Amino acid sequence: ADSLRVHGVAIPTIVGIQNVLKHIGAQKDGKQARVLWISLREEPVVYINGRPFVLRDVEMPFSNLEYTGINRDRVEQMEARLKEDILMEAARYGNKILVTDELADGQMVDLWERVSCDSVKTPLEVYEELQLKGYLVDYERVPITDEKSPKEMDFDILVNKLSQADIRTEVIFNCQMGRGRTTTGMVIATLVYLNRIGASGIPRTNSIGRVSESGSNVTDNLPNSKEAIRRGEYTVIRSLIRVLEGGVEGKRQVDKVIDKCASMQNLREAIATYRNSILRQPDEMKREASLSFFMEYLERYYFLICFAVYIHSERAALHSSSSNHTSFADWMKARPELYSIIRRLLRSDPMRALGYASLKPSLKKIVESTDGHAHEVGLVAALRSGEVLGSQTVLKSDHCPGCQNVSLPERVEGAPNFREVPAFPVYGVANPTIDGIRSVIRRIGSSKGGRPVFWHNMREEP
Predict the structure, then answer these.
(1) pTM reported for the whole predicted model
(2) What H or E segment, with its residue span, contains residue 54?
(3) Which DSSP string corresponds to 268-298?
(4) Secretion signal: which residues (predicted)?
């Protein structure tokens, strides 16, 4: 993220780490720039003769071993034990260890690598040695599973580490390829940085809640149109920004930061890439894999929007000396509806999240009313852009006079299904009109001597 002191890189060699630090000027005899280097690898890594090697399954050397939920201490303990195992095995083979190397064309080759106690290092040891050599670098490890969203606790750890660093500190993230996890870390760090300097707010525009100008391309706003998908306007995201206060602004901020950090991967547009792959892929196994990536990427985008709203509302979390703040994990727990949305609209029904039922929306002819304004419901709904009255929503009449139960002995106009518990001042009613509310209050007041009424609304829908 240019000019924001946030950087990303793939897993480097030891010389590569030194070159990056020299480039930034993180040396006592250089610019004296301070660096916070955050590795997002959850896989155990060791350096052998200056090059990184990762533990993999012999049958799947290109696939990461997943340790979802592992913390820094445990993964670094694994790396220390892995180093011991390498040295013990090498002692049996003339101080050599058999490794699997990868050529520039992706071909795998097995070769014997000569090792010694000094040539095998854990990542932690590498950075500690660089500190002793005068490099101004602090090293952190936040293990995150590849191709998945960080867990709520991961967000909190990153906020804690980033907020403790001086605002002028250069922040560097790495994973394996320097793509998904690294880009996600860069987005999180940029959101934190912007909030720390008070630059996170995006002015509300006059277009909020209005239908777009008649000259705009209406097909771009239809559900599942190429442009709407590129903008990340999936059903689950529309539902999120409707229910989450500040959700519209949070999505705008995340989109802005994602676009700024997109030199390797655009985290929003990558969702659409897998969506398109699902539709075109004839091979069922590859299609299932694409669907899995689609869901993980969409969930990552969902949590980034939640985090953007959180960090803007919980500024106390950005002050390292403050203990009086709500963590992101607790903030999410206090909003169970955010989990129910993603469970209902993504995890339990991925085809709906994909928009599979309406992949080819037909553009109906716009019927003009007598005043010359379009009133075709699909187009008007597509062009809506309010915080709650958003795209693909309609205002449906919520009074249902036809729901009246004919077996009930009493009828109250405008208040269907009014009834009471015999001998108790407890009543029930369907959603009433305003006149219906008045009628119910008059009915209760007249029969109970004008006592006050306590009305409970059990609706969760707006």
Answers:
(1) 0.78
(2) strand 51-54
(3) THHHHHHHHHHHH---HHHHHHHHHHHHHHH
(4) none
